[in-house]
Design brief:
Keywords: Membrane, Transmembrane, Transmembrane helix. It is found in: Membrane. It is a single-pass membrane protein. This is Mid2 domain-containing protein. The protein has a domain of 106 residues. With 251 residues, the chain is an alpha+beta fold. It is 32% helix and 17% strand. The strands form 3 sheets. The protein has a 3-stranded antiparallel beta sheet with strand order 1-3-2, with no helix packed on it. The chain is built from 3 helices and 8 strands.
């Protein structure tokens, strides 16, 4: 599989000719040139390509470079305006309406009429993606091989959690039992106190108890004068007195 990481990618825009160590894609507009690293090929130099690219061969590699856009020069700063291009560090990318949508790099902020400063774009490299994929695969493999220790760790965690739950349950049970015991003692004390109060309020029963009648008795009437007490007459004989014999006259 062919890698399109640097020295392949989008070329620099130089204000002036390309360096002797670079591959020139030709003039773009005004005094600007598209320049690729010397180890790459610029198919746009010999054929019409919408945007210049630096490829391993004369074949157009625009499609794979758009999938992971980056500069052919590792130190380049990437911009995008109707196509990706790169500038050197410290330069500013811009586009102009004369000619329309032409792009270039300026050592200072462009001040000419019709020139608009562009915002830099993040770059993507295949090696980074490959490294991330390899790291993900390695992580997946290490996860599968370490499944048993992971299970052991999980079991340990579960046992620890179970032990903690048992301790918590024992503590909770002790607290509930203590509260229930205190409540029972309070209930018994309350019962005996109430019962004692009820007993003290009941009237005494037995021989010395005064009977309580439901209705009052009428008052006794005093004796009147008409009611004379019975007198005992001498003629009345009593069983405890001896009977005297009367003397009889004898003729």
């Amino acid at each position: 599989m062919v890698s399109y990481d640097p020295p392949y990618g989008f070329p620099l825009r130089r204000n002036g000719t390309c360096l002797a160590s670079e591959t020139s894609c030709g003039k773009t507009w005004g005094n600007f040139y598209a320049c690729c690293p010397g180890d790459s090929v610029c198919p746009g130099a010999t054929q019409s390509i919408q945007n210049n690219v630096c490829c391993p061969t004369e074949s157009d590699c625009t499609a794979p470079l758009k999938a992971t856009p980056h500069c052919a020069n590792e130190t380049g700063i990437m911009y995008n305006h109707t196509g990706y291009f790169c500038c050197l560090p410290g330069q500013t990318g811009f586009w102009t309406d004369n000619p329309n949508n032409a792009v270039g790099c300026s050592d200072e902020a462009p001040t000419a009429r019709g020139e608009t400063i562009l915002v830099t774009k993040s770059q993507s490299f295949e090696s980074t993606s490959s490294t991330a994929a390899a790291t993900t695969t390695a992580s997946t493999g290490s996860t599968s091989t370490s499944s048993i220790p992971a299970a052991t760790t999980t079991s340990s965690s579960e046992s620890s959690n179970s032990s903690s739950s048992n301790h918590a349950g024992a503590i909770a049970g002790g607290v509930v039992g203590g509260v229930a015991g205190v409540a029972l003692i309070v209930a018994l004390l309350w019962y005996f106190v109430i019962r004692g109060r009820k007993r003290s309020q009941q009237p005494p029963t037995g021989e010395g108890a005064i009977p309580v009648t439901s209705s009052p008795q009428p008052p006794l009437k005093p004796p009147t004068e008409l009611e004379a007490p019975k007198r005992q007459y001498e003629l009345e004989s009593r069983m405890d007195q001896p009977v005297h014999e009367l003397p009889t006259n004898r003729d």
